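Help needed: design a sequence for this.
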């Protein structure tokens, strides 16, 4: 499958995990649900050169969102959420890149526990992804995700599922598979795709993490000077961080890492894609649960 399609689709999956909260929690217990969660996150990238013309590019990502979980029965939970993200780009004019890219979406999902070990989930997240110079139906992107979780033992949870992307340039059906291994209360290992990492929690208020992730997405363009109708940005990220529980329901996270294999891909146009050199980045995140 074309890698230009593969990466943005898995990025969508990560976004949905963040928005819903319930699917992202490795310790998720459908019988012990917090009602609301909200977050604000910013990631700042150091300047790096553009391969096409040698100019320098800087970028910042801002994400905010909130979600609500409804435990309807001891086995069935509904969730809903909202997320807005902004990608700000500062590049030379001859690079012909948009100055900002926006994603506004809602999520609707449900989780059903068949038994003590097996849980099924379904989520839909319609939204607008574009430069926001105009708003049309071509801006709509709607990932639909089916996931399953099987608790093989007290230490191992297996995950799997499929994602179908509506509104992307192609409509792939992609698998997701992985495992969460928790050998002790302090250590958690997430193995597979699209998430891989390790977390160490020495006490109830501090958590250290090391892992790999994707960043980016696909957006509709409405600026004819750019020379394309659609732009995709992605990168691969090695990231390490620390999270503190400041008070019950309030968390602060600080992280940093290295972004590589950075690329802007243009579709429905005549221009070439743009490669961007590797860059360091820093991240700050607040999260509130109540």
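Sure. Designed sequence:
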């Amino acid at each position: 499958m074309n890698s230009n399609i593969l990466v943005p689709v898995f990025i969508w999956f990560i976004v949905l995990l963040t928005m819903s909260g319930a699917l992202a929690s490795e310790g998720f217990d459908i019988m012990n649900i917090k009602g609301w969660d909200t977050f604000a996150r910013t990631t700042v990238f150091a300047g790096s050169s553009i391969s096409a013309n040698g100019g320098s590019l800087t970028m910042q990502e801002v994400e905010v969102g909130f979600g609500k979980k409804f435990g309807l029965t001891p086995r069935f939970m509904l969730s809903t959420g909202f997320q807005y993200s902004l990608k700000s780009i500062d590049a030379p004019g001859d690079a012909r890149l948009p100055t900002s890219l926006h994603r506004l979406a809602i999520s609707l999902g449900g989780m059903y526990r068949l038994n003590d070990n097996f849980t099924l989930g379904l989520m839909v997240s319609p939204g607008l992804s574009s430069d926001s110079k105009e708003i049309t139906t071509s801006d709509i992107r709607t990932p639909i995700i089916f996931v399953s979780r099987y608790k093989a033992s007290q230490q191992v949870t297996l995950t799997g599922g499929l994602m179908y992307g509506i509104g992307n340039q192609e409509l792939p059906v992609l698998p997701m598979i992985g495992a969460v291994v928790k050998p002790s209360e302090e250590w958690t290992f997430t193995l597979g795709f699209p998430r891989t990492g390790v977390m160490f929690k020495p006490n109830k208020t501090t958590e250290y993490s090391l892992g790999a992730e994707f960043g980016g997405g696909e957006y509709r363009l409405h600026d004819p000077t750019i020379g394309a109708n659609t732009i995709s940005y992605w990168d691969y990220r090695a990231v390490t961080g620390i999270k503190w529980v400041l008070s019950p329901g309030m968390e602060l996270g600080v992280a940093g890492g290295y972004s590589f294999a950075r690329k802007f891909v243009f579709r429905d146009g005549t221009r070439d894609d743009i490669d961007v050199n590797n860059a360091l980045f820093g991240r700050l995140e607040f999260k509130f649960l109540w």
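The two ends are 42 Å apart (CA to CA).
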